[in-house]
Description:
Elements: E1 3-6, E2 17-21, E3 26-31, H1 38-41, H2 48-52, E4 57-59, H3 65-68, H4 71-76, E5 82-86, H5 87-117, H6 132-139, E6 142-145, E7 150-154, E8 157-163, E9 171-177, E10 180-184, E11 207-211, H7 222-238, E12 242-246, H8 252-266, E13 274-277, H9 279-290, H10 297-305, H11 307-311, E14 315-317, H12 321-326, E15 334-338, H13 347-355, E16 362-365, H14 374-379, E17 384-387, E18 390-393, E19 397-400, H15 410-417, E20 426-430, H16 434-448, E21 461-462
Helix pairs in contact: 5-6, 5-9
Amino acid sequence: MITITPYGAAGDVTGSAYLVETENANVLVDFGMFQGDKDDEGRNVIPGRIHRMKIDAVILTHAHLDHCGRLPLLVREGYRGAIRATAATKDLAGIILRDAAHIQEGDYKRRLRHAQKRGHKVSRSDEPLFDSEDVDRTMNLFREVGYNHTTNIASGITAVFREAGHMLGSTSVELYVGERKIVFSGDVGPPNLPFLKDPDPPTSADVVFLESTYGDRDHKSLTATLDEFANVLSTAIKVGGKVFIPSFAIGRSQQILFHLAEFIREGRIPRIPIFLDSPMAISASLVYDDHTKLYDTESSELSKQKQWDADLETLRYCETADESRAINDLSGPFVVIAGAGMCNAGRILHHLRKNIDDPTAHIVIVGYQSRGSLGRYLVDGAQTVTIMGERKQVQARIHTLGGFSAHAGQTDLLTWLAPMVHSKPQIYLTHGEDDARTILQQQIQERFNCSSYLPVYAEHLAVDKE
């Protein structure tokens, strides 16, 4: 008997985690952090079932926090086994986890100071989930894997890691348990993303766990998205406006810089100051430089020619808080790319607090916004928002550019699944809100005459195929 239990991303899009139990071993595929409102953050624990058992190995599909963010909790509680991931995923996960620890440690110190001023004690719930030492111990457990090679994972379990096209180093995983082939899509990217090779789907499966973040729709075409982006920039530049782009530090920030360079090279916008206001994004860009062998053909050629250096000569890296604050004293036009991508932390909050009530400012949303996040409120048209404890009127212009998503849209998800349906696998739709995965479920039935199932958190799934 093989049992798989989702401990996250089952009816939502964060906290991805699957416990795989076999007769011989227990393996975790991803162990990510829940992100969003306070209720979501309260779910960042080690579930009791995992806490009580011996975990033999961990597989990490990619480095985003919603896939790796609870790993330090596991290590804090005594896990000392291997964490299998690609080299790029290891490097990027180190950046992401250290940043998460730094933010938590900083928040705790502020709460502690405020409590001490009032003669109070901080509650245990205010303590960091993990600290930098936990992250260091976690990173020491990583063991690198290559693409398209069979890797021993645990007793009776092997895996093959395939290109997922979602971020640098991202994978879909073919997990072999005896005669059973279980596929975890991880997060699947659309074709033709800058830097990344296209997804390489498996050709057969007995069981498939398929992400469904955008299972209900396709994204606007990249061409149309770039036209809209260029128009937003042109409008802001004409009136000396400021453009703020909340962006995930890894993947999305580099993608946005790629297209800004393209606009400048093609003469669609003039050279204006561009600030990459994110130490994590700066570090990630250096990791990209270390893994150029993973690039697609176009990006590889541009890298060899050093074309980006010429296009982005006005790009400035803001590593320190003082460099970030100095942006507030500048007149537009300029572009600021800052984390966090869902506007739920990081330097973008400071920029939004200062500029959200400026009608000449433009806020460009370029990624998915989870329920409860500030970014989601802005996308949904909120007239007032609370930023760092201040109630602010939303007068800046809000733009949502869905075509930049690193997640496959509905058509691309179906295309990714198509090579496997001939083997009539059991299909489980995860990593999507219920509306999205219900619509994808209908499309799978109509297109492939295959049923699929929508599991919920902590539901035990018997995945043996007769």
